[in-house]
Structure formats: C-alpha cells, structure tokens
C-alpha cells in the first residue's frame, strides 16, 4: 500500500471529500486522540499554555488541546482540511501555510508545539527546484525561533525508512534543538515515533540537553549534537575561535547549507569539497 505523501502533495491529496472522510473516521479519531494525549504528556505543561499545532488538519488534535485547557494556533497547507475545521467550529486560530517554507510567527510566540503525522511530508520534494533538506531546515529553523526559551515541541511522525528518520533528526539538531526520539511499540505494526525537542535558554532548562526530559522513559534514542555538548558549533570572531576564510572548506559548507535552507538544489559535499586544485599544465 502506497503512502499518501508518495502519491500527491498534501494540498492536493487532501481534497474536500478526502478531508471529510478522514475527519469522520472513528478509527482516525481514536488514533489521533491517543497520539495527541501522548504528545501532551511528553510536553509536561503545568499551566494553561499557548500551543502551536503543526499540520493541524481539521482540528482533531486541537480539540483535545482545548479540552486540556490550552489555547492553540493551527497551521496546515490543506485549505480543504482547514475548511472542515471551520465547519467543526474549533476554538483555535487557523493559518493556511506551508510548513516547508518556515513557521511565520514572531520569535518566542509559543509556549510549546505539537505535530501529529505531518512532518514526514517534508521529506518529499515536489519539484527539482525544491529539496527535502531545504524544507526541513526552514521548518525547524522557524519552529526554533517561534518557541520560547526552555520550551518543548513533540512531533509524531512516520518516516519511510531510517534514512528519512536520520534526515529529520539531523535537521532538528542543526536548527539548535536538543532532540530525542521516543519509540512506542517498537517492532510492532502500531509503532509510533515521537521526536521530542527542547529549546535552550529557559530557566532551569539545562540548555538544549534532552536527557532530563526523557529520563526514565524506555525506548528513547537521544540524538547527539556536534561535539556531544548539546549545542551547535558556531563560527565567530571571538577569542579562541578560528576566523572563517572566504573560499575555505568551512566557508563553502556554510554557503551550501544556506542555499539548501532556501530550497535550492545543491551538489553533495565530499572529501574534495574546498580542496585546492594543483596547477594546470
């Protein structure tokens, strides 16, 4: 059976008919309720909060956020799904937007974020001018910026294979998140993956270290950041930091990363990237 994201872009796949069928399915409602409850438990919110629902669809997960006492804003690329959400008179605010183009909210706007069965769509590029890595980079960079320091995000997703899972994990870490993947029911037909993200800088948050969040949980794979420090390596001009030289390997890799974030197709790097060529004869 083919995966929806392998057939059509989400804004086309979820037609008015498909959106209503999806929303009224008792099986889908049960699964969504279970995964949203799991995501909320991993967020560990102690007070009513403002939550961003990424890929909110027709508002099934948002209704549960409302029941839990939270305010929420939902964003989705499917106008048909959002139309069904409006018909259901959900309490959250809704935004028609492509998460692969970023998260268009002011910095520090949200206390937390959840996403149920959405971010795997970013692993597919709909045209040769757009790369999956660029879409993931823009999404996670925007999400990191939109969350308050010390906040958490929980994204349940269905990677097609380990390569896609690794692609998502690395994009989150590169954006600055502390990241861990929780596996519910590993090896079973009902296996679910939850990407648990933390934003450093909040009081008592311990930086971007994810280990305190998932301590005591079984089936958790903590994604290490560069150097194992829980922080991104940055290039700067401060004391003890190497100055970046134009044309160097580091400069080239940074430029290629910037191009990927803009959705441009970039040739893969290799051990020869940035290496000086010998004289021509």
Description:
The longest helix is centred in the first third of the chain and has 18 residues, at 26-43. Mean pLDDT is 83; it is low at 224-242. Strand 2 (71-76), helix 6 and strand 3 form a beta-alpha-beta unit. With 281 residues, the protein is an alpha/beta fold. Helices cover 35% and strands 18% of the residues. The chain is globular, with a radius of gyration of 20 Å. Helix 7 packs across helix 10. The chain has ten helices and eight strands. The chain has helices spanning 4-7, 10-13, 16-24, 26-43, 60-67, 79-87, 132-146, 162-174, 211-214, 249-261; strands spanning 50-54, 71-76, 93-96, 110-116, 147-157, 178-184, 192-198, 220-223. Strands 3-2-1-4-5-7-6-8 form an eight-stranded mixed sheet, sandwiched between helices.
Q: How many angstroms does the end-to-end distance come to? A: 57 Å
Share of helix, binned:
25-40%
**Poorly predicted parts:** 224-242
Shape: globular
Report on the biggest sheet: 8 strands, mixed
Properties at a glance:
single chain, 281 residues, alpha/beta, 10 helices, 35% helix
Summarize the structure.
This protein is of the alpha/beta class and 281 residues long.
List the helices and strands and how they pair.
Elements: H1 4-7, H2 10-13, H3 16-24, H4 26-43, E1 50-54, H5 60-67, E2 71-76, H6 79-87, E3 93-96, E4 110-116, H7 132-146, E5 147-157, H8 162-174, E6 178-184, E7 192-198, H9 211-214, E8 220-223, H10 249-261
Parallel strand pairs: 1-2, 1-4, 2-3, 4-5
Antiparallel strand pairs: 5-7, 6-7, 6-8
Helix pairs in contact: 3-6, 4-5, 7-8, 7-10
């Amino acid at each position: 059976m083919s995966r929806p994201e392998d057939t059509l872009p989400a804004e086309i796949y979820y037609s008015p008919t498909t959106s209503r069928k999806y929303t009224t399915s008792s099986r889908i409602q049960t699964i969504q309720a279970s995964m949203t409850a799991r995501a909320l438990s991993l967020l560990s919110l102690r007070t009513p909060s403002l939550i961003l629902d990424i890929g909110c669809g027709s508002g099934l997960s948002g209704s549960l956020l409302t029941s839990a006492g939270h305010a929420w804003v939902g964003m989705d690329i499917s106008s048909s799904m959002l139309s069904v959400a409006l018909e259901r008179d959900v309490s959250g605010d809704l935004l028609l937007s492509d998460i692969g183009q970023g998260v268009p909210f002011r910095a520090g706007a949200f206390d937390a974020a959840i996403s149920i069965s959405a971010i795997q769509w970013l692993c597919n590029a709909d045209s040769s001018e757009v790369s999956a890595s660029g879409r993931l980079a823009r999404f996670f960079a925007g999400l990191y910026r939109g969350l308050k320091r010390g906040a958490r995000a929980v994204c349940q997703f269905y990677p097609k294979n380990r390569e896609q899972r690794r692609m998502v994990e690395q994009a989150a870490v590169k954006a600055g998140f502390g990241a861990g993947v929780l596996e519910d029911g590993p090896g079973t037909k009902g296996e679910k993956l939850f990407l648990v993200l933390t934003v450093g800088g909040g009081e008592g948050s311990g930086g971007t270290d994810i280990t305190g969040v998932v301590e005591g949980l079984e089936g958790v794979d903590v994604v290490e950041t560069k150097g194992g420090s829980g922080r991104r390596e940055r290039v700067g001009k401060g004391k003890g930091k190497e100055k970046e030289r134009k044309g160097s390997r580091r400069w080239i890799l940074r430029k290629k990363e910037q191009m990927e974030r803009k959705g441009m197709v970039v040739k893969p790097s290799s051990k020869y990237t940035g290496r000086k060529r010998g004289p021509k004869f």
